[in-house]
TrEMBL record:
Ranges for domain Phosphoribulokinase/uridine kinase: 3-184
Keyword Acetylation part of the UniProt annotation: no
Main location: cytoplasm
GO biological process, one term: CTP salvage
A GO term for molecular function: uridine kinase activity
Protein name per Swiss-Prot or TrEMBL: Uridine kinase
Pathway(s) where this gene product acts: Pyrimidine metabolism; UMP biosynthesis via salvage pathway; UMP from uridine: step 1/1; Pyrimidine metabolism; CTP biosynthesis via salvage pathway; CTP from cytidine: step 1/3
Ranges that cross the membrane: none
A single cellular component GO annotation: cytoplasm
Subcellular location: Cytoplasm
Entry keyword annotation includes Chaperone: no
Reactions catalysed: cytidine + ATP = CMP + ADP + H(+); uridine + ATP = UMP + ADP + H(+)
Gene3D superfamilies for the chain: P-loop containing nucleotide triphosphate hydrolases (3.40.50.300)
Species this protein is from: Faecalibacter macacae
Length: 206
C-alpha cells in the first residue's frame, strides 16, 4: 500500500492535483481522504461561536481520528469517514464508507503539520501557489460553495488564514518530498512523475 500526503495553502490547487492524478491513473485502486472531513465536531457550541473558530490552526483538526483511520486502512480495515458541513461548522452525522485500496491519498492544508501523521506517509507533496492567486480562489469558493459574503471571507483571510499559513502551512513545505508549482507546465510535469510512481506501485502489487 502506498500512502501519499498532499498539502499546500488554501486555494493552492491541491484538489486539482488530486483530480489530475486520478484522471491520469484512471483506476479504482486509489482512494482520497480529505482533511476537511476531520474538523472537530463542535455541535455543543452555539453557531455564532462555531463561526469564529480558527479553522486554519492545527488544533481545529481531529488528528487523532484521522491517524486512526489511516492506520486502519493500512491494516486492511474499512473505515467510516465523517462528513463535515462548512455551513453549520459541525459534522452532519453522515459517514462515508471507505474500503482500503492500493493507494491512499490524504489531502489538506495541514496534513504535513502533524509529525505522527507524516510518519504514515510514504510520499509527501506540497502544492505551491502565489498568495494572490490563492486568495482569489478562496474568495470564489467560500462565496459560491460555503455561503459566505465577501467581507467575511476577506476578514478571515487577514485575521486567521494568512497568519496561519505563514506560521504552520508554509513551514510544512520543508517536510515535502516533492513540491509542485501551481504553474501549467511545472504542474503537469510533476503530476505525470507522481502518477508514474503510483502506477509502478500498482503494477508491483498486482
Amino acid at each position: 500500500m502506498l500512502v501519499i500526503g498532499i498539502a499546500g495553502g488554501t486555494g493552492s490547487g491541491k484538489t486539482t492535483v488530486v483530480n489530475n492524478i486520478l484522471r491520469d491513473l484512471n483506476t479504482e485502486s486509489v482512494i482520497v481522504i480529505s482533511q476537511d472531513n476531520y474538523y472537530k465536531d463542535n455541535h455543543d457550541m452555539p453557531l455564532e461561536e462555531r463561526s469564529k473558530i480558527n479553522f486554519d490552526h492545527p488544533r481545529s483538526i481531529d488528528f487523532d481520528l484521522l491517524k486512526e483511520h489511516v492506520r486502519a486502512l493500512k491494516n486492511g480495515e474499512t473505515i467510516e469517514q465523517p462528513v463535515y458541513s462548512f455551513i453549520t461548522h459541525t459534522r452532519t452525522g453522515e459517514t462515508i464508507l471507505t474500503h482500503p485500496q492500493s493507494v491512499i491519498i490524504v489531502e489538506g492544508i495541514l496534513v504535513l503539520t502533524d509529525a505522527e501523521l507524516r510518519e504514515l506517509f510514504d510520499v509527501t507533496i506540497f502544492v505551491h501557489a502565489d498568495s494572490d492567486e490563492r486568495l482569489i480562489r478562496r474568495v470564489r469558493r467560500d462565496i459560491q460553495e460555503r455561503g459566505r459574503d465577501l467581507d467575511e471571507v476577506l476578514s478571515r483571510y487577514q485575521d486567521t488564514l494568512k497568519p496561519m499559513h505563514q506560521q504552520f502551512i508554509e513551514p510544512s513545505k520543508n517536510y515535502a518530498d516533492i513540491i509542485i508549482p501551481n504553474m501549467k507546465k511545472g504542474h503537469s510535469v510533476a503530476v505525470k512523475i507522481l502518477s508514474s510512481v503510483i502506477k509502478e506501485k500498482l503494477n508491483t502489487t498486482k
